[in-house]
Protein: Gamma-tubulin complex component
Amino acid sequence: MAGSQLALIKNLCLCYCDNKPDILDKTVNTVSHLLHSEHGNIYQDDIRLLDKIWKHFQKYGRNQEMLRFGQIYARLNKLKVLKVRLETLQFLYALADTASTEHHHDSINRPMPTSSASSFDIPSFSLLSLQQGSSNAKENGTSHNSSHIKSSTSLQKLLQYTNGDEHSLSTTNNHYSTMNNTTTNNNNNNNEIENLSSIKRDNDESRILRELLFGMQGIETPRLSSNDTSIDRCTRSIINRFLECGWLYEKIRKIINTPTTSLVAQAFIANLSSELREYHRLISVIEQQTNVSGMVSLKKLHVWMCTPIQRLKCLAAVADTCHGRKGGQLLSILYMHSQHGDPLQQSILYPLLYNCTIPIRDMIVEWICNGIINDPYQEFFVSTDKMVSEEKLWYDKYTLRVPMIPSFLSMEQAKKIWITGKSINFLRVVCKDRTMLQIIKTPASSQSLFQQQRSTEFQDMIISVYNETTRYLRSILDDKYQMMDHFKAIKRYLLLGQGDFIKYLMDLMETELNKPANQVFYHNLQSLMDAAIRVTNAQYETEDIIKRLDLRLMYVSPSELGWDVCCLDYKFDGPLRTIFTEENSLRYMRIFNHLWRVKRMEYTTCGVWKQLMKSSRQFASIPEISDMTHTCFTMSNEMTKFVQSVNYYIMFEVLECSWSDLLNKLMEAKDLEQILEAHDDSLLKILTRLHLDGHETSQDLAKQLRCIFDLILNFGTIIQRLIQSVDNELLSRKSYEQQQNHGTYTKNNTETDAEVRRFHTVFKPQLKTIKSELHIVKKAFRDAVLKFLQQLKSHPDITLRSLSFRLNFNEFYKVSYTSKTTA
Structure:
């Protein structure tokens, strides 16, 4: 069985290999492998595929081989050994048209066609001429059966081969000779009747065809549009299908005639016009063929117009969807329609998409190479505002139109294109750098924009231009404008990183800052700051940084001191104003004020501790205040511990960690946009962890912390009053003792009574008042700290929650509060 199967395969392949042994062996091996595999096919049954094969033989005039193929196929089908008969025939049919296969291979590597020439295929009239030749031969008395076999007859013949026996070829010739004789006799009997009916049908069909050609061009045809009873239902359905072409044509024509203000839309309309010209060409060819008798009929025209109708439907649907759109929106719609499994729709949409992409491709190349937007109709996805100043060039002058981004471009690619053009303009306008970067030698093709899965040409162009432009801009910012040095200067001075300078500055300014805010003057503080720079390590800074360091006095409110209105400032100009904007300067000012207040609390608690230690001997000489002295030392240590914990949290866990993250991001940043994002993220993180971000929870924390700081300041004032009272009491007692030592040894009752009266009327009431105030401040401080801890525990930021544990790691405030509540 296997040997007979191989012999049949060889005989079958001979029809396609033209008796060439080198091609025959290769084809037989391929077919043998195909017989044992499973492949999907595009044909639903044997009839359609056999019809294709039969037309192929007729196209090349291989009539003898056509009959031989029918015999071999019938024998092969009868053996029932071919399991994948349909797939085998499909494969052999594909091998037959070698020239068309090579043409298809070339079209893959060829650039995308820019026009749709021959988009509406002109039907082949070779079969019709062949039929006319056969009729002429019949009139001359000659018969050539093998030269005018129709497609339907060929299929019937193949089916006869399938159901016949091995001698079907010999009996078939006899059958056809008998059938021809019978047909000739019948034609002689009914010749006149058939001629009359044929002439009438031909006249009616010719008239319908002439009117249909007008209707297919959108021209109204009253007779075809009305309900003509002389036209049967079958013909009417065919006519309606042809009239659909006219409706689609008119719909597309109206869209073409609509005025447009868009380069992409103009390209789209130009392609639609080209499609309609090809459609006119098809109509004109068909109209020319209608002049030849018997060349065109309704049924033949129906077959020829199947593909053009589908093409018109596709064009009308796309044109209707794209009507009124422009720029990237129109390209997105075309790209969406092109992502279709139908090869016909792909062949229609790809040329349209290719031509419509050219204006956007040119805009992209002009933007990323020269920083110029040539967009008269506002269809590019990057827009410009000429009214924006240089300082806001990076932020507001060039914006990204997200709806105008074509869907075949990713958001990352669009942002890189946007940033590249902005970087060029930033270099020219803000940095005053006119260096021309020669990056692109050959721009990417328009096809590479929407076929990035096949080609990386466009992606490579964007990456190369982006890397070169941003690298040059980064080098300008680092080398010419010393961007990193200014970041470090802000860390040292505005964020209080230069400890010796800050400490010495507070010592010098203490007297001035303790004054009311309306009595503090800028020139006095400026001279003190200059003195602090000359004495501390700040003197080793570059001259540019020292000139930028300045003081600012904020708005003065009633009952405020100089501590509340004094603020360090750092001046920026040129490209640095883009990084350190006015908004960022205000953020730094808020951060500095908070750090300055914490430093003041630390300075105050340290001062209170020094005063207490200095006055400890005086306190020991007055036994009446021993309990009060213990309370003062306890509260001083408690407040110092709280302030130091808060200061450690701010300086190390907030500022140092944020600064380290910022440095890493700045080193990794490739473009200015990434630098700005890293800077903004760092500032927002600092503001959040310092509860200065304006959130409701943060505002409650800031108010509570400010309340605690006010209590610390009140405690320092009470300690000063206590020390003053103790000093006055010691002076009075010393004066009394000196009088006693210089007088007589007899006891003066009058002086003694006066001293006792002074103690009970002056010093003792002062002690009582101070003691009550200390008790109030102590209770208020612990209650405020406990509330602050409870607020920290419910904060979403983990670093603030960890601060609550550090401030109360031994649960001191919880125990003390519980004991007081129980008491």
Notes: The two ends are 110 Å apart (CA to CA). Residues 718 and 770 are 7 Å apart (CA to CA). Strands lie at 382-384, 398-400, 549-553, 566-570. The chain has 35 helices and four strands.
